[in-house]
Amino acid sequence: MKKGLVIDREAQMIGVYLFEDKKVYRGIPRKKIIKKTKIYAGDYVLGNVIDSETFAIESVEERKNFLVRPPVANVDKVIIVFTLKKPDFDSFLLDNLLVVYEYLGAEPVIVFNKIDLLNDDERKELKRWKDIYINAGYDFIPVSAITGEGIDTLKEHIKGNISVFAGPSGVGKSSILSALTGIELKVSQISEKTERGRHTTTGVRLYRFNENSFIGDTPGFSSVDALYFMEKREVKNYFREFLRYRCRFSNCTHTDEPGCLVKEAVKKGEISKERYENYLKIIGSSK
Ligand SMILES: Nc1nc2c(ncn2[C@@H]2O[C@H](COP(=O)(O)OP(=O)(O)OP(=O)(O)O)[C@@H](O)[C@H]2O)c(=O)[nH]1
Ligand SMILES: [Zn+2]
C-alpha cells in the first residue's frame, strides 16, 4: 500500500498527494471507510493506485489533531498573522488566538507582516513586541509579503509541515501564501472571501511548496474568544511563560492569591505587563 496526504477536499472531491509518486490522484474511499470516518484535508491515508488517476483509500491514519476552523487534520503549525499598522496591532486578539490554537494542539508561529511600511520608531515598537513574545516562548517572524523580507525565514519554520493561516482581515494572509508558494490566488478562490458572495464553501486545499511542506488556503479564526473553548481556570495553562512559575497554591489563578509567583514576575518585569493584563481580560478579571 502507498501513503498519501489528502490535499484537496470539497464536496465529493478528494485529492490525494502520493509521496512516492509525487503526484495527485482522485481518492475513492472504500465503503468500509465511509462508514467509519469522514475524510478531511490533512488526513494521511493508505491505499492502492487503481489507474493513472485513481487511488483507492483503504484506511485513514489516526489524527494528531483536528482544527475545526479551517477543517484540517494533522495541523503542525498555525501561522498567526498580524501587522503593527494597516490594520493596527491588537495584542488582546493575538493572545486569544495563541491560547486557542495551543489548546487545539497546533503550534503557533507569530508573523508580523507589512514591515516595509514601518519607520524607525515603528521598527523599535515592533522589536519591543518581538522581545515580549520571544520571551514568552513563541516564534516571532517579521516579514513583508511585498518585498519578500523574512519570507525565507518563515519557510524554514514551516518546512516539512502542514500549516494554516489565522489572523484578522487585511493583514496579508493571502499575500504571504502567494509569496510562499508562488501561487497567485484569485480573490474568489479564498473561501472566506467567497462566503460573502456565495453559499458555504467548506472546501480546503493544501498547497505544496519546498518539497513536502503544505499550507492551507482557507484561513482559520480572524477573531476568537478563548472562553468559547475552555473554562476560565484552564486559560492560565496556555500562557506559556506562566508555566515556568510554581506558585504557593498549585491551582493559583494568578489573580489575588498570596505567594503568587506569576504576579511577582510581572512586577519584576520577567513577564510582560501586556500579556498579564490580557490574561486578566480573557478571564474577565478587571484588575
Ligand atoms: N505594504 C504592504 N502591503 C501588503 C503586504 N502584504 C499584503 N499587503 C496588502 O494588504 C492588503 C490585504 O492583503 P490580503 O493578502 O488580501 O490580506 P488577507 O489577510 O488575506 O485579508 P482577508 O482575506 O480579508 O483575510 C492588500 O491590499 C495587500 O496588497 C505587505 O507586506 N506590505
Ligand atoms: Zn500564581
Q: Describe it for me?
A:
By secondary structure, this protein is α/β, with parallel strands linked by helices. The protein has 3 domains: 2-60, OB fold (Dihydrolipoamide Acetyltransferase, E2P); 66-216, Rossmann fold (3-Layer(aba) Sandwich); 230-282, Probable gtpase engc, domain 3 (Ribonucleotide Reductase Protein R1, domain 1). The protein is 27% helix and 25% strand. It has 8 helices and 13 strands. It has helices at 31-36, 91-104, 120-136, 151-157, 173-181, 191-197, 261-268, 273-282; strands at 2-10, 13-18, 23-29, 44-49, 54-60, 66-67, 72-73, 77-83, 107-113, 139-142, 162-166, 204-209, 213-216. Helix 3 links the parallel strand 9 and strand 10. Helix 2 (91-104) crosses helix 8. Residues 187-200 have low confidence and may be disordered. The structure holds guanosine-5'-triphosphate and zinc ion. Guanosine-5'-triphosphate (GTP) binds next to helix 5 and helix 6. Residues 113-114, 116-117, 144-146, 169-175, 190, 192-193, 219 line the site of guanosine-5'-triphosphate.
- C-alpha termini separation: 59 Å
Write down how many β-strands occur, each being a DSSP E stretch of 2 or more residues: 13
- Average pLDDT for all residues: 92
In the CATH scheme, the class of the largest domain would be: Alpha Beta
Order of helices and strands: EEEHEEEEEHEHEHEHHEEHH
- How many DSSP H or I helices? 8
Topology-level CATH name of the largest domain: Rossmann fold
